[in-house]
Amino acid sequence: GYLWRSDGTRAGTWRTALPSPGYSGIVTAVNDRVLVGAPQLASPNRQSLLAWDGSGSFTTLQTQNGFWTGPTVAVFDGRAWIADPNLDAFALVTDGTPGGTRVIPRTRYGSPLRVTTSLGVMGNSLWLFAGQQLFRVDPGVPDPVPVAALPFDPAGAQFGPMIGARRLVVLPDRRLRLFDPSSWTVADLGLSVSGGGPIAFGEG
After folding, report:
1. pLDDT of residue 122
2. 123 and 135 in contact (C-beta within 8 Å)?
3. Residue 195's Cα: distance from chain center in Å?
4. How far is residue 191's CA from residue 126's CA, in Å, rounded to a whole number?
5. Which residues, at least 6 apart from 193, have a Cβ–Cβ distance to it below 8 Å?
6. What single string gives the DSSP state of each residue in 157-184?
7. Which of 100, 117, 123, 160 is the most exposed place for a label (fewest CB within 10 A)?
8. Which residues contact residue 144 at a Cβ distance below 8 angstroms, ignoring those fewer than 6 apart?
9. Is residue 175 a contact partner of residue 191, using CB atoms and an 8 Å limit?
10. Which pLDDT tens digits describe the chain residue by residue (204 residues)?
11. What HEC string does 131-149 produce?
12. What is the pLDDT of residue 119?
């Protein structure tokens, strides 16, 4: 029922009560603020995205119907990009302040789209998937830029580490592949991962 903040010393360690007795969860952190999803006391079916800088009270950034159900989160260029099935939007982008928080409509790019996966930072850009469309976020640019359609559906894929300029991808058939963002192609490595469920990837 609490959030803790610490600088690594006993004197610099303290806690603050979460703003709601119901389920609350940390979404991410951006610009020295932690972002927390917490239900509203007056309306338990609505959940707020709150920011806390480690002192004082929480600041409300956004309120939505339903709970965060495992949001896709990426932090890049001082902004957190948040997508969730209960968020009726392409994505929510925030720098941790109310004035720096906005919702990008699902129809921003014509047809309704919602960010489903973050590929992470490659080069000096953040790469996001919405359906089978790949989007690039550049520093200082407010909205993602559509790049290309992919030859696979990223919704059921698991993404591993970068190997050179390519990223390891495991599709639902459990076969290992390498995705090359420069050509938008996927190379089959001829190997499969046995079992089911999430895969633990190593780095290096």
Report:
1. 78
2. no
3. 26
4. 28
5. 170, 174, 175, 176, 199
6. -EEEEEETTEEEEE-TT-EEEEEETTTT
7. 123
8. 91, 104, 128, 135, 136, 137
9. yes
10. 778 888 899 999 988 887 766 667 778 899 999 998 887 766 767 788 889 888 778 899 988 776 666 778 899 999 999 988 878 889 999 999 999 999 999 999 988 999 988 888 877 889 888 888 889 999 999 999 998 887 777 777 888 888 887 889 998 899 999 988 777 788 999 999 988 888 888 876
11. CCEEEEECCCCCCCEEEEE
12. 80
pLDDT for 22: 63
Give CA–CA dist 98/83, Å, rounded: 17
Strands 33-39 vs 46-52: parallel, antiparallel or unpaired: antiparallel
Read off φ and ψ for residue 189, nearest 5 degrees. Answer: -85, -5
The kind and range of the H/E element at 42 are none
Strand arrangement, sheet containing 158-163: 158-163, 166-170, 175-180, 185-192
Q: b/e string for 78-102 if b means 16 or more Cβ within 10 A?
A: ebbbbbbeebebbbbbbbbeeebbe
Residue tagged 């200082």 (tokens):
140
Write the CB contacts of 131 (distance below 8 Å, at least 6 apart in sequence): 113, 114, 116, 155
- The H or E element that residue 83 is part of is strand 79-83
The pTM assigned to this predicted structure is 0.80
